[in-house]
Amino acid sequence: MGFLQRPFVVLLLILTYQLLQCLVAFGSVNEGDQKQEQFSEELLLKPLPDRKVLAHFHFQSSAPPSAANGRHHHLFPKAISQLIQKFQVKEMELSFTHGRWNYESWGGFDPIASSNAKPPGVELWAVFDVAQDQIDASWKNLTHALSGLFCASINFLESTTTYSSPEWSFPPASGNLRYGTLPREAVCTENLTPWLKLLPCRDKAGLSVLLDRPSIYRGYYHSQRLHLTARGSGSKEMDSGIVLDQTLTVVLQPNSRRAGMVHASENHIQPSWSLSSMFGKQVIGKCILAKSSNVYLQLDSSLVSPTNSITSENFWTNPSFELSANPDSLLIEENSLHSKGLSVLYKFQVENYSESEPFDLGFTWKNPVIWSCQQAPLHASRFLMGSGNERGAIAIFLKSKQLNEGFIGFNADNERCELRVDVFQVVPWYVKVYFHSLQVFVDQQPKAVSDVIEKIRVSPSKDKVSPGMMEIVLKLPCRVKSAALTIDFDKGFLHIDEYPPDANQGFDIPSAIISFPDFHASMDFPEDDSMNKSSLLSKFKEKSPVMSYTEVLLVPLTTPDFSMPYNVITITCTVFALYFGSLLNVLRRRVAEEERFLKEKAANKTGGLSMMLSKLSAKLRGRPWEPPQSVQHLSSFINSKLVFKVILVAGLAVGWQYFFS
Amino acid sequence: MGKKKTETAPFSFWSWVIASIVLRLILIYFPKNLNLASRPEVSTPLTSFRRLAEGYWLKQSSMSPYAGSMYHGSPLLLSLLGPLTVKRIEGQPNHLLYSLVSVIADVVSAMLLRATGKSLQLTYLRSLESLDLVKQIRFSEILSSGDVAALIYLWNPFTIVACVGLSTSPIENMAVILCLYGACSRRVPLAAFGWVIATHLSLYPAILIIPVIFLLGCGPDAPPRKLFLQTNQQEKVLNPSKLPPAFSWRPIVHFVFWALLWSVYVLVLCGVSLRQFGGLLEMFKSTYGFILTVEDLSPNIGVLWYFFAEVFDFFRDFFLIVFHVNILFMILPLAIRLHHHPCFLAFVYVAIFSMLKSYPSVGDSALYLGLLEMQFSFFLFCGYVGVSLLSPVMHNLWIWRGTGNANFYFATAMVYACLQIILVVESLPLGTMEFPSNRLMAVSSASELCLPPFAVFLPLTIERDPVDGRQTFLERDAFQYRGRARGMHVILPVKCKWEVVMEMIGMGMD
């Protein structure tokens, strides 16, 4: 009986403990929202000028400081919290991106463009809260953990050749930062599924229902991102233990089914869209676990300003478009630096909808409208120069948009107005950059490097050890039309094993990051109820410098002949053998005359003497004559030696025989 | 005829020197130095000008010049030549000052070669004196071998290309030649300085310590002592004062002392200039370590780059050891066989290491060709011309056009290596020849009398008349005879008996 009872007791204990825990957790709900794990889901929709639509999903889970409720979580994904505990991650961002953000038509100034537009492939950066010498080890473990978590080859970022540690040009600048990218990484559903698994409702309920794989991957651009912020419990901001922001940004082309049917003038009208036409799904209701579930429709400042009469009364009777659902509220941007007008947010609360009345926002254009998004101060692009596979040059070209005269105006009052541009560039080691060849052209005039570059920090690449990194702060005059940086490089030659399977495709140089610290991409939409703050909008409010990523460059490198290793080894070794053999042969060989001379000597000897003796005498030649006895003595000595040897061998044989018998 | 030559020779020498300088300057004034600076044949990772400039830039921006894997040269070169990489004169080519330094280095090397040749000539004169042969030879008629060596060094296309291509190999070559000059002229500190600097710059000249020791110990060219003894024994006259000097340890001890002194000096200088950047350990790691572990696999005219690009990783260390030991293995046998001809020994060493070194360039070939100073056989000449024409073509096809592949370029490198092997192997018998034959016994002691321009020379034999025992030379006015022996023309500046020469050459041929 005693044996049976013990497990029962243990079970009972476990059950009561769990119950207690639940009680404590529910109790904490009542105590206040601050100490609770929270989840909120939001979707931002935004028509883009080039007949496309941006959909930006934002899921935020937060957990209170781990000390408060131990290692148990209700909503917060356990995998992530373990990751943070294990590797002491302070802040981390991982993004999987497919396609390239079109800065010119999709905007480069708003928070979405500057913090959610990511370079193609995988980008990972992390700030650690460990001692300097353990950062690399933590980073390596982190990459492996993430690689397993997201089914991606993030573990390639483990090698020191792929990551770098920027000091100040990358915005969350800190000494404990590691930054790495994999431009070649193919992003697909296998990365999305584990990402969705981190959501409490997965893709079964709430806004994430919209994440229909075929429609997402049909888009022009999609980027799934995971941003983690962990603040230690010791810090003053007690409100947030761990905050996990999961965003997915998609740019979709709505189907314009009516294009063929309607007359030509309607072709200029932007295609109308609805959630169901873009995603093939409708939102049935909110995720029950979510605190809030909102959908926003953002209209650009330049899009709404022509109407000029946006008030809270007539905001949905807009002349240029029509909405199928009535928004719950309207938010207008406030206090922006630029004078262009203010963008507008329509807010829809998903909780008002149900299965019988699903939420399907439809957006129908009535008049053709042309507008443009806000651009970054300078548009950055990057390209390669030169031909051939020996060397080349990277050029980063910054071009001013005439449109943004307005923003520069804010500090144009003083004469020496300057525009600060930070450039952060990582090049893999096989692109051997000559930093001394850095040239700067401002308005197509070559400038002395020291005039334009305020600060520069490089860490040159070490072959097969570390990539090259370049951080530059440029001070350009405000009226600059264009600026260009060029830097020469030599292409490296790799070992045959270091080439990827498709070696002739070329190698990628990761995107450069151009940031404008003087400009902040922030949008402030004052909300009516301060109790229920939207996490998306508070993200928008954060002041982060305007950033843009340049294109990934494809550098073709020469390849050796991959089928040749055996041939090369054998041929080279043959040449070395030829060298060694023929040289030794020549050294060993006597000149013909010399040989003849030795032969004559040998022939002169009368037959009585042995070969050995003749050699001896040849050796002794030239010395004073020696009496024959010594020779005799020598020969007899050698004979006795021989006899001695024979006896020794015989003795050994006898001993051997005796010992083993 | 002969008189005319003696008058015109010095004049023509200087005019040729000036012409070679002018040619270099003209080439320097071509735009972008004819792109020679980026040719893989001219600039290796060790000698490249752009890498030097990069190292200087890194140093100027207060980083270690070895921070990346760009610069692998000496910190001293960085301090001396670095400022020249950035200094520009208005209206002049970009790197004029640096090119001028290379030109000066070339000219100095040529002058040192000339002086070395002269000092060798003097030695032979002395050894002729010891055999009482000097009366028969009128040295005034001899074309100075040093002049020829200097001119050949200056006009060698490889030298010119290395000089115009802004590589640092002219300076490295100058250090090697300085070392040999110091040893030949018995200026021990100079020899030690040259040796230390050459070793510091490119590691491989370290093995030149053996010929230098022989040079200092027994003089520039010491025929075997026993031959003199034999000669004198036959003549029943023993004149110890006229014997060649025996091996003496005094200059060698001096040399070692000075070498230690200079190397400490150089190391201290390097240490001072690298004090805040990781010190000497990092310097050794990224200069000698880089040389020994063939890290850079960019193509050059050697064979190792492709080998190590293709070889399986787990064999890499093994083959690194094998290839470097290949150089070391040959040191001892060559030293034993050629210790009577230290200059020739030096030539063979230089040829071997410039063939087997990790990052060879044509500048290295220029050095040993300058030391050798001989005219090639037609075959070798064609080979060198062919390789130097084909190599750029193959490189262009592979790298720039993408129509060829690496094997094409590698094939020219293989041919080049084979040519060098043939050159060394073919020239060796000349250095090892001694003629202890019965018939020529009396004169074999003088077998080294032929005046070697610098290194290779054909042993000259002088026949003794069997009737009156006088040593005679042919009265025929053979100012210089170019005989073909083993595929090489050899300058015989001394009047000598036609038949003897023919016989000797015949021997060389079989």
UniProtKB/TrEMBL annotation, chain A:
Enumerate the Gene Ontology biological process terms: attachment of GPI anchor to protein
Record has Metal-binding as a keyword:
no
Q: Name one GO cellular component term.
A: GPI-anchor transamidase complex
Q: Which residues form a coiled coil?
A: none
**Keywords recorded for this protein, A-Z:** Membrane, Signal, Transmembrane, Transmembrane helix
Tell me the first and last residues of the signal peptide: 1-22
Which named protein is this? GPI transamidase component PIG-T
Automatic annotation (TrEMBL), chain B:
> What are the BP-aspect GO terms?
attachment of GPI anchor to protein; GPI anchor biosynthetic process
Compartment(s) where it occurs, according to its Swiss-Prot or TrEMBL record: Endoplasmic reticulum membrane
Primary place of residence?
A: endoplasmic reticulum
Q: Which InterPro entries match?
A: PIG-U
User: At the top level of its lineage, which domain of life is listed?
Assistant: Eukaryota
Supply the alphabetized keyword list.
Answer: Endoplasmic reticulum, GPI-anchor biosynthesis, Membrane, Transmembrane, Transmembrane helix
Which membrane topology describes this protein? Answer: Multi-pass membrane protein
Q: Which GO terms describe its cellular component?
A: GPI-anchor transamidase complex
Which pathway is it part of? Glycolipid biosynthesis; glycosylphosphatidylinositol-anchor biosynthesis
Enumerate the transmembrane spans: 12-30, 158-181, 193-216, 252-274, 286-308, 314-336, 343-360, 408-428, 440-462
Similarity comment: family membership? Belongs to the PIGU family.
Q: Any idea what this protein is called?
A: GPI transamidase subunit PIG-U
Q: Which organism is it from?
A: Corchorus capsularis (Jute)
